C-alpha cells in the first residue's frame, strides 16, 4: 500500500507542475494588453509602461512564472488588478457559494442515481429497466443550461416557489439553501444519469458472479443479495465516478452560475476574463485544477483501500 501511495504522490506532484505550466502558458498567449485595457485608449506610452511595471508585466515570462508559483505555494495568490483586493479574499468569498453548490448537487445526483441504478439492474430487460435507461438517456442529452432555464421558468416564474437567481448570503442559512436548490438540481441531473448507468452496468456484471448464485442457492432473497453483496462489490467503479463528478461539479459551474447570477468561482473566472484580470484567472483556474487533481488522487487511494487486489499488486 505504501508503494501505491508513493507512486500516486509522484504522479500527483508531476500533474500539478504540468498543470501550472499549461495554465500560465495559456494565459500568456491570450491576446491584448491588460494595462491598455485598464487605462483606456488615451493612455500615454509612459503611463502604460508604468502600469505594466506595477503589474509585473515588464518581467520575463519565466521570472513571472516562478514568482507566481512561489506565491501560490505560500498561499499568496496576488492582488486583483480590477478589484484591488487580494485574490485569496475573492476566492474565499466566492468558494462559500461554489463549494456548497457542488456538494448539494453531488448529494442530489447520488440520491437519484442509487435507486435508479438498483431498479434497472434488478429489473434488467423489463419495462422498469427500459424506463430508467430512457430517463437517464434524456438526462445525458439535455444541456444543463437549458434545463436550468426550464427550472427557472417553472419554479420561479410560473409557480413562484423558489428564487430565479442571485444569492442572499449565509446570514440566513435557509434562504441561502433555497437560492441553491434550482442550480444544484440543474447540475445534478446529468451527473445522476451518468452515475445510474455506471451503477447498473457494474451491478449486472456482479450479479453474474458465482458467489451471487451461491448466495441465492442458500436461500437469500434477490433484494438482500442485491443490497448485501452485489452493491458492495459494484461500488468500486461508482466510487471513481463520484470522485470525478465532484471535481467536475466544482470546476464546471461557470454556465450554471451565470444562468442563476450566483457569485461563485465560475462567475468570478468569467468576469475576470472579460475584464482581463489575468492574475485572478490563472490563480482561480489553478486552484480548481488543484482541487480536481487532489480529489482524483484521494479517489485512487480510496479505490486501492477498498480493493485488496490492488494492494496485493503493489
TrEMBL record:
Keywords: Cell membrane, Membrane, Transmembrane, Transmembrane helix, Transport. The lineage of its organism: Bacteria, Pseudomonadati, Pseudomonadota, Alphaproteobacteria, Rhodobacterales. It comes from the Bacteria. GO terms for molecular function: dipeptide transmembrane transporter activity. This is Peptide/nickel transport system permease protein. PROSITE patterns: ABC_TM1 (PS50928). One of its GO terms (cellular component) is plasma membrane. It comes from Phaeovulum vinaykumarii. Pfam families: BPD_transp_1, BPD_transp_1_N. It is found in: Cell membrane. CDD domains: TM_PBP2. The keyword Electron transport does not apply. Belongs to the binding-protein-dependent transport system permease family. InterPro entries: BPD_transp_1_N, MetI-like, MetI-like_sf. Residues 95-297 form the ABC transmembrane type-1 domain.
Amino acid at each position: 500500500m505504501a508503494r501505491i501511495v508513493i507512486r500516486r504522490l509522484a504522479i500527483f506532484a508531476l500533474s500539478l507542475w504540468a498543470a501550472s505550466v499549461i495554465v500560465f502558458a495559456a494565459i500568456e498567449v491570450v491576446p491584448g494588453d491588460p494595462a491598455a485595457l485598464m487605462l483606456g485608449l488615451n493612455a500615454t506610452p509612459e503611463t502604460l509602461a508604468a502600469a505594466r511595471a506595477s503589474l509585473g508585466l515588464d518581467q520575463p515570462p519565466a521570472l513571472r512564472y516562478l514568482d507566481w508559483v512561489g506565491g501560490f505555494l505560500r498561499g499568496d495568490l496576488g492582488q486583483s488588478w480590477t478589484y484591488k483586493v487580494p485574490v485569496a479574499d475573492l476566492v474565499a468569498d466566492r468558494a462559500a457559494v461554489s463549494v456548497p453548490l457542488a456538494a448539494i448537487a453531488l448529494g442530489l445526483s447520488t440520491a437519484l442515481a442509487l435507486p435508479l441504478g438498483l431498479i434497472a439492474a434488478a429489473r434488467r430487460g423489463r419495462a422498469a429497466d427500459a424506463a430508467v435507461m430512457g430517463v437517464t438517456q434524456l438526462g445525458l442529452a439535455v444541456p444543463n443550461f437549458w434545463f436550468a432555464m426550464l427550472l427557472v421558468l417553472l419554479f420561479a416564474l410560473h409557480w413562484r416557489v423558489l428564487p430565479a437567481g442571485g444569492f442572499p448570503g449565509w446570514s440566513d442559512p435557509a434562504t441561502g439553501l433555497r437560492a441553491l436548490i434550482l442550480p444544484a438540481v440543474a447540475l445534478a441531473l446529468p451527473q445522476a444519469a451518468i452515475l445510474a448507468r455506471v451503477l447498473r452496468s457494474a451491478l449486472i456484471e456482479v450479479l453474474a458472479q458465482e458467489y451471487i448464485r451461491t448466495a441465492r442457492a442458500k436461500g437469500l432473497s434477490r433484494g438482500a443479495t442485491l443490497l448485501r453483496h452485489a452493491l458492495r462489490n459494484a461500488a468500486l467503479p461508482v466510487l471513481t465516478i463520484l470522485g470525478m463528478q465532484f471535481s467536475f461539479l466544482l470546476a464546471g459551474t461557470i454556465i450554471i452560475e451565470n444562468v442563476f447570477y450566483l457569485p461563485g468561482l465560475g462567475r468570478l473566472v468569467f468576469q475576470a476574463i472579460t475584464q482581463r484580470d489575468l492574475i485572478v484567472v490563472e490563480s482561480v483556474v489553478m486552484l480548481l485544477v488543484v482541487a480536481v487533481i487532489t480529489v482524483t488522487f484521494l479517489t485512487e487511494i480510496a479505490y486501492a483501500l477498498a480493493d485488496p487486489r490492488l494492494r496485493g499488486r503493489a
